[in-house]
Amino acid sequence: MEPQVEAHEVGLDPGRLGRIDAYLRRYVDDGLLPGWQLAISRGGRIAHASSYGLRHREDSVPVGDDSLFRIYSMTKPIVSVAAMMLYEQGAFQLSDPVGDVIPSFADLSVYSGGSDLRPSTVPAAEPMRMVHLLTHTSGLTYGFVRQHPVDALYRSHGLDGSGGLDLAALCDRLAGLPLLFEPGSRWAYSMASDVLGRVVEVLSGQSVESFLASRIFGPLGMTETRFGIEESAVTRLARLYSLTQSGLEPADHLAETVDRPAYPGGGGGLISSARDYHRFTQMLLRGGELDGQRLLGPRIVDFMTRNHLPGGVDLQTYGPPVYSESTMRGVGFGLGFSVDLDAAAAGRPGSPGTYGWGGMAGTRFWVDPTEELTALFFTQAFTGRPLPVREGLRQLVYQAIV
Which secondary-structure segment (H or E) carries 376? Predict the structure, then answer.
C-alpha cells in the first residue's frame, strides 16, 4: 500500500492530504478508535497511504500493511458483483422471481399486525424478484435492527447467527417468516445479500465461497480475502473493539470467528486487507477489468452503480431510519452499492454517481468515476453511537483535490 505516484501529479495537494491524517489521528488519540489504515487513489494509482494506532492495543501491535480486517457488509458489493457476473451470462433477469431459483421463496407472506409472538400476515401480492435482493427492497430485514416484530422473529428463529444453519437451510427458514413489507415497496437493510449468495450457489453450481475464490479473488490477485483465515495469519487480524462509556474494550465476544463461518453467505463474513480491497475498487473504477482480467463489462458496472430506487428517490424517502453516521438524504441505491445523487441534499462533497458502502466495524470505501478517485478506510471498532469519522473523511478527501 505504498504510494505509486506523487500526489501533485494527480491533482492532490500534499499539504491538504496531511489534514486527513491529522483529523483521523485525533480519533485514536481521544480513545475513540484503536487504529486505522487509509488509501486514496486517483487515476488508478495510490497517491496517499497512511496508518496510525494499534491493531492490538493490549499487545501494542501497530496497524500496518500486513493487517487483516473483518469487513462485514463490505462483503455485499463483492457478492453483488458475483451475481451480476452470472447475469452477464444470461443466468437470470432482474425481473425473475427469486422463487424460480430458491423454491421456498415462491410462497411468501407479509406482516400485517400483531406481535412477534402472535403476528398476523397476508399473502404477498408481489413476488420477491432478483432486483429486490440487489437493491435491499425485498421486504427482508435483520434480527439486530430491533425496530419491528419481524426483527424479533428473526432472532427467535436463529437468524441472528446463532442457529448453526448452512446457507441453504438459512434461506429456507428465512422464506418461512413474514416479510417486513411487500417486495419492491420500500428499502430496508437486510439479509437480502445472504439470499443473493444462495442464488449464486444455485445458478453456478458452486458454493458462494468457491465462486468468489475462483472467479473474483483469484483473477484479481486478492490473495488474503476469504471466509476465515489461515492459522498462520491469525496474529495479523486486527482485534475487534467496542466503544463503551469506559472507553474502548475488546469485543471478542461479538467478533465473527476467524474460522470458516457456518454459512459463508453474501451479507458478511469476509476477512480482507486494504491491499486486496483496493484491487477490487480499481476493477470497478476501470469498468470491470484489472490487469487484463475482466470480471464485468463496463456497461454493466455503469448499470449497477446507477440509482435503482423507483422514481429516482433517495433512501431518506424510500427507507426507514438506520443506524449510521452517514446521511440518507441525497443518496440512492444501485445493485449492491449506495449511489450519491445530490451533494447539496446529502450535505457532503462528491460527484453525482459516486458509489460505495461500509462495514459494521467502521470500514468504508467509495469510488468516484468522475474524479477517477477511490478511497479506502479500515478500522475495527463498534462505536455504539454514530461517530462522524467517515463523513469527515469524505470532506477532507475532496478538499485535497486541487
Answer: strand 373-378
For the chain, the domains span 92-192
Question: The whole model's pTM is what?
Answer: 0.96
Q: What is the pLDDT of residues 54-64, one digit of tens each?
A: 999 999 999 99
Q: How confident is the model at residue 115 (pLDDT cuts 50, 70, 90)?
A: very high
Stretch 222-236: mean pLDDT: 90
Would you tell me the crossing angle of helices 167-175 and 192-204 to the nearest 10 degrees? Answer: 120
Q: According to DSSP H, which parts of 214-273 are helical? A: 218-220
Q: What is the dihedral of CA 226, 229, 233, 239, to 10 degrees?
A: 100
Q: Are 142 and 197 in contact (CB under 8 A)?
A: no
CA distance 360 to 72: 6
Whole-number CA gyration radius for the chain = 20
- CB-based contacts of 13: which residues, under 8 Å, 6+ apart? 7, 400, 401, 402
**According to the 3-state scheme, what is the secondary structure of 258-271?**
CCCCCCCCCCCCEE
With residue 275 as reference, give the H or E element that holds it: helix 274-285
237-251 burial code (b ≥16 CB/10 A, e <16) = bbbbbbbeeeebeeb
Euclidean distance between the first and the last CA atom of the chain, given in angstroms as a whole number: 23
Nearest to 239 by CA among 381, 130, 102, 136: 381
The closest alpha carbon to 125, from 183, 174, 171, belongs to: 183
Contacts of 231 (CB under 8 A, 6+ apart): none
Task: Encode pLDDT of 313-325 as tens digits.
Answer: 999 999 865 545 5
Beta-carbon neighbour count of residue 389 at 10 Å?
21
Q: Cell numbers for 321, please give them.
A: 431510519
* Cα 362 to Cα 74: distance, rounded to the nearest angstrom: 10
118 membership: H or E segment, kind and range: none
Looking at residue 36, its amino acid is W
Among candidate residues 135, 148, 145, the one with its CA nearest the CA of residue 179: 148
